[in-house]
Structure formats: C-alpha cells, structure tokens
Amino acid sequence: MNIFESALSQIKKAGTSVMIDPDMIARLSVPDKRIHVSIPVQMDDGTVQIFQGYRTQYNNARGPYKGGVRFHPKVDENEVNALALWMTIKCAVANIPLGGAKGGITVDPKRLSQGELERLSRGYSKAMYDLIGPDQDIPAPDVNTNEQIMAWMLDEYENIARHKLPGAFTGKPLALGGSLGREAATGQGGANILRYLAKKKNWTPQETTVAIQGFGNVGYHGARLIQDLGYKVVALSDSRSAIYNEEGLDVSAAHVYKQQTNGLSGFPDARDLKNDELLSLPVSVLIPAALENAINDDNVSNIKASVIIELANGPVSNTADAVLAHNDVMVVPDVLANAGGVIVSYFEWVQNKTQQYWSEDDVHHRLDSLLFDAFEDVWNVSVQHNTSLREAAYIVAIKKIVDALALKHSQR
Ligand code: GLU
User: Fold this and answer.
1) Pick from 248, 254, 251: which is nearest to 267 by CA?
2) Phi, psi dihedral angles at 139 (to 5 degrees)
3) Same-domain status, 191 and 140
4) 3-state SS assignment for residue 138
5) How would you class 171 by CB atoms within 10 Å of its CB: exposed for 0-12, middle for 13-18, buried for 19 or more?
6) Dist CA 106 CA 108 (whole Å)
7) Within-domain flag for 334
8) Does residue 217's CB lie within 6 angstroms of at least one atom of ligand 1?
9) Which of 86, 345, 363, 367 to probe ligand 1 with, by most ligand atoms within 8 A of CB?
10) Does residue 146 share a domain with residue 36?
11) One domain, residues 72 and 126
12) Is 144 in the pocket of ligand 1 (CB under 6 A)?
C-alpha cells in the first residue's frame, strides 16, 4: 500500500463508521487536480538541470486550496496526494475556511547553492502561476522550505501579476506581510495540545517527560515551547544523531550547539543515542516531528511512551497505528496536533486581506482558541463514538466537508 492509499483508508474507515454517503466518500477519494511540471534551472556551473515539481489541489469545498511546498529527494506524486488529503482534513478539523492542497519538488536542497535554490523556487512559482493565488490556492512552507523561499516565490508571482498580492503565499517574512507568530506556530500548537491533554490526564508538567524526533522548524520550536511550559524534554534527535538526559535537556543550548556543530552528537550533559533508540525511550510523550512512517512495523513494538503527539505529517504508519491502539498508546493525530501552522497561515491570509496586522499576543490567543475548540470537538467525538482520536478527527472533518459539498451540488 503506498502512502496515498493508506491515507485514503483512513477516510474510508471514518466514513463507514458514521455511515457517510459512499458517493461522498468516493468523491473525497480523488484529488480535484494533480499538477506535475518540469522546472529547468540554470546551475552555477552553467549547465541546466530539470527538476520535477508537483501540486495536488485536493478539495476546495470549504475554501481556497491551502498547503505547503516541500523540497525533498523523496517527493513524488503519491506523497503529495497524501499530504494534500491530510491538509483538507486538517483545515476542516481546525474549522478554518480553507480547502486542502500540497506541493513539492524532488530535490535535495542541501546540495544547491543559494542562487540555485532561488532560481528553483522562482521556477516553481512561475510554473504554478495560473493555478495559485489568494482566492485560488495558497502555498506555504513545509519540510526544507522557509520564509526566504516564500519571499522568492511571492516576488516571482507578483512580478508576473504586476500587482501586490501578499495573500498568495503564507509563511512570508514579516517585512513582506508575514504574521507574527507564524514561524513557531506548528510547534506552538503542539505545545498547546500537550497542555490540553495533560489537563485531561491530570498530568503535572514536572512529572511529564517528552522525547522529540526531528529538530527542524517544528521540532525545535515545539521542544522550546514545551520546555517553557515546564515539561521535561529528555531527548532530541535530528536526521543523523540523538541525545538523551533523563533529568532534562536545555533545548535552547542544544539548538545553539546544533548550529555550531551541524548536529546534536556530543552535546555536553547528554548521552548520545542511536537515532532509532529515541523512539523506544520510557517517556510519557513521544513527539515525531520529522517525516512520514517514522513509527512503522519494524519499531512499533518498542514504543514505551503512553502518548504520541504527531507533529510531523503521517509519522505513524496505518499498521503501526493499529498496534499502538491495541497497546493502549494514545495517538493525537497530525491533522489536529500540527494544525497550529495552517491556523496561523490562515491568520496571515486574513491580515493580508484586511491589511490590519495583529500583535503576537493576539495571534497566540486566537490560535489557542481555535485549537482548543478543535481538540474538544475531536475528544468529544472520540468519547461519543468510542474511537481513536484519529478516527474522531476524520469524522469531524469529513462531516464538515461533505456538508459543504452537498450544499453545492444538488446532483453531486
Ligand atoms: N506545511 C504545514 C502543514 O503541513 C503548513 C501548511 C500551511 O500553512 O498552509 O500543515
């Protein structure tokens, strides 16, 4: 089963359990539009290399398509389709008036110079020009893309359009109409989710230990903010190394160390672990914040955490998910746990449209309010239907999307 097929089976399962019209599930089982472009880029040595770019516009029943653009060597059409479907569900769970999309380029950006990266980013924006825009489809950062890349893409877009359209992209730098609080938003949302969950479970921060896989934008801000709330972050990892101290790590010091040494290995006051060992630590909460399928058939039986909060998209495979449920490990699904990013993207888009800019405090309060309501909705549905939080999140989302679809199409 490829990753898109796994994502589809989540929809089908939720649809069957609450008896959604099978025609509607069939409708939601195919993306609206799949775009695949070739992007020629002049390399620094004078040669031209052709990169493959994708954008899947999955569903826009509830609002313009929305979702990030990923730069990674493993990007392909199935992955982009799955990620676009998850965005559709995520925006509906978060109750923001947006549909779902995702894009990507098959590339290892670490092998490109700044100039090559800029030309590639501009090439993507140019190739997608007709299909994106503030009321059409709004890209944002994802794995290996950031505010600088959004700035290049937006500049290219506005140059072609010949007018200012800051709402065509989110996750922009502040100087170009970005929102305060956007950069840390996914991590902030993850920290909020842990806070809501701890309340349900009567956990105190001091006795709650957390291990985080992935130390990019999401993992770093998540770890920092979770530590700020008083929780003990005992383990961190990046793609090459992992570190552990059962008394707790200093997340900010680890971040500085990673910037200086380009890794985490050898961090003072911690023990180095093999990368995969982080997943099997005896912690209260395990937070995968890297890529898909981190927790899979091979390692699921080693998991000792009592809760998993998915800050990455799709970090638990379907079969691993079933094993975790059987072992009573609670999983807070990606479509809820990492929705903080797209929620603040939505705020950015609203600020661009109204040309009124909000304080960071205001952004935090609004994020907390939307995410808390989403968490409560999902929690209550899971209690009511006796399902996992993932299935509950899909039930919440699919009902909203299907309602919107039904209102539009009397003939469907
Ligand atoms: N890439 C992020 C996600 O997967 C954010 C998407 C957005 O802001 O549009 O949720």
Assistant:
1) 254
2) -70, 170
3) no
4) strand
5) buried
6) 7
7) no
8) no
9) 345
10) yes
11) yes
12) no
Is 376 domain-assigned? no
Please report, in tens digits, the pLDDT of each residue of the chain (412 residues total).
899 999 999 999 999 999 999 999 999 999 999 999 999 999 999 999 999 999 999 999 999 999 999 999 999 999 999 999 999 999 999 999 999 999 999 999 999 999 999 999 999 999 999 999 999 999 999 999 999 999 999 999 999 999 999 999 999 999 999 999 999 999 999 999 999 999 999 999 999 999 999 999 999 999 999 999 999 999 999 999 999 999 999 999 999 999 999 999 999 989 999 989 999 999 999 999 999 999 999 999 999 999 999 999 999 999 999 999 999 999 999 999 999 999 999 999 999 999 999 999 999 999 999 999 999 999 999 999 999 999 999 999 999 999 999 998 765 4
Residues 189 and 146 in one domain: no
Q: Which of 102, 172, 258, 400 is catalytic?
A: 102
Q: Specify whether 225 is located in the same domain as 253.
A: yes
Same domain as 220, residue 161: no
SS3 assignment, position 317: coil
Pocket test for ligand 1, best of 80, 142, 193, 352 (most atoms within 8 A of CB): 142
Residue with tokens 């109204």: 354
Domain boundary among 142, 170, 198: 170
Query: Are residues 189 and 164 part of one domain?
Result: no
User: Does the C-beta of 313 come closer than 6 Å to ligand 1?
Assistant: yes
Amino acid at 223: A
143 lines ligand 1 (CB under 6 A): no
Question: What is the reported pLDDT for 93?
Answer: 98
- Report the half-sphere exposure of 52 (CA within 13 A, side-chain side): 9
Domain residues for the domain of 319 are 185-328
Q: Domain count of the chain?
A: 2
**Ligand 1 contacts CB of residue 245 (under 6 A):** no
Whether 119 and 189 share a structural domain: no
> Which CA distances in Å does 174 have to 52, 177, 180, 346?
30, 5, 7, 15
Q: Which of 328, 359, 393 is the last residue of a domain?
A: 328
